[in-house]
Amino acid sequence: MAREQGPFKTDNPWPRIGWWSVAGLLAAGAVLGFVVLGGEQQNGPRLGTWTAICRALGIASDTGPATAPQPPLQTPTRIAWTAATLARIAGGDVKHGEFVALNCAACHGEQGVSQSGLFPTLAGMDAGIIYKQLDDFRAGKRSWGAMNAIATALSDQDAADVAAYFAGRVNGLAPILGENFHGGRTLREADVATRLAFAGDPARGIPPCAACHGPSASKPGAPSLKGQRPEYIERQLAAFAQGIRQNDINRQMRTVAMQLTPDEMHAIAVYYGSGAAPAELAGR
Amino acid sequence: MAEPSSNPLRQPLPDGVVPESAVARTEKRWVITMVTMLAIMMLVIVATGLADALHPASNVEVVDPRTLHLAGEFVESNLGTAIEPDGSATVRLVAVQYDFVPNCVQVPVNTPVKFRLTSADVVHGFLLPDTNVNTMVVPGFVAEVRTRFAQTGEYEMPCHEFCGLGHHAMWTRVRVVPVAQFPTEAPQQRTSCAEQ
Lengths: 284, 196
Ligand SMILES: [Cu+2]
Prior knowledge:
The complex is a heterodimer of chains A (284) and B (196).
Chain A: H1 13-39, H2 49-57, H3 83-90, H4 94-100, H5 105-108, H6 127-139, H7 145-153, H8 156-167, H9 192-198, H10 210-213, H11 230-241, H12 252-257, H13 262-273, H14 276-283
Chain B: H1 20-51, E1 80-83, E2 89-96, E3 99-101, E4 104-108, E5 112-119, E6 124-127, E7 134-137, E8 143-148, E9 153-158, E10 171-177
Parallel strand pairs in B: 2-5, 4-10
Antiparallel strand pairs in B: 1-2, 2-3, 5-8, 6-7, 9-10
The structure holds copper (II) ion (CU).
């Protein structure tokens, strides 16, 4: 007896049954996925069929809760790292910046290399960061009497120009990138500063400083610390921890600094600030 | 009898070796087994989806990750737990390398809770062990997860999506506290247990 074979033969019922079962499964899956499960919301009313389907397909958007009443607005800064901001910073004119920088040398040192623990070194700092800090001083988001007055006297273009000038100076901060993570820098490292810089302290939620400040990775807005004045680093850490300085976007530094003990702040400031980092890295 | 063919599949079954009825019976058993397995699996998916609310949050909401801190729902002053007029809690968090902000949140027990999160930089993950809360936090989108905590206690929430060199230090706490600790909050008040 011969068998009629092939998926489209109609005199044998099984291919037809097979096709219908597959179609039925697909339909049942679509109803379950798009309507039954898609419409289910915990702690809320079921969604309507069309809303559920649209949401499952990602073509509907909800913006409801954004209009709820909010506490008084508080922002850390006016700056966001958008393309427009980056373009403004990139438009800095070094020549004019050098002229503006004449007003800074008395405190920040010749060519931005500070000779005092009170003033940060600006030479080699990323232009975007200098620009942001100047805007924060101008907007009162960061406070330091003299700097607030000086920043207010600068125009937005002056700030971009002077930022470009200092960013190009040498003998100040080390470039933020350039070294890779080195072996032997683990959570068991005995030296507290090396441990915090390269491994952090996960139990307390402290990421390695190097993940944002270099030398192995960088983060927009985070300056290089290698070569910065140690006294300045320590003072800024304390200011972040006490909430005196609150101009970091998304609390990135406040969250870290609040976990540090004064001893750790001192150790890490000496470690980065004394320039020990580059020498040590070269040695390993 | 059909024409003999060179294609072995086209040739009649050798009668008497395996009776066709026996083949049909075996095939039927296999079909029943496979369909039952499929049905059980689908049932498990649907049952857990409905009973434990284990299904992807399917709403799409977009936001600009670069300007979260300037305006809108995810500004610093709006993060933390808000008690809605209906008594439910809405918790807003920003995931950022390498922290959730705020880094400790408090919610009332036995109360509907809605987590709303977004990322300011890369993809992070948000997971509360032993609950139905488990979502990716993708920059540019708002992730919304609903849940309800039956017991007071503290949950640790690790970021479970590798997000960079500080990923191992990225975790936060959710503290589930008695309802009495959330007295009549003003609708625009936000609370958290993060150190300020
Ligand atoms: Cu993460």
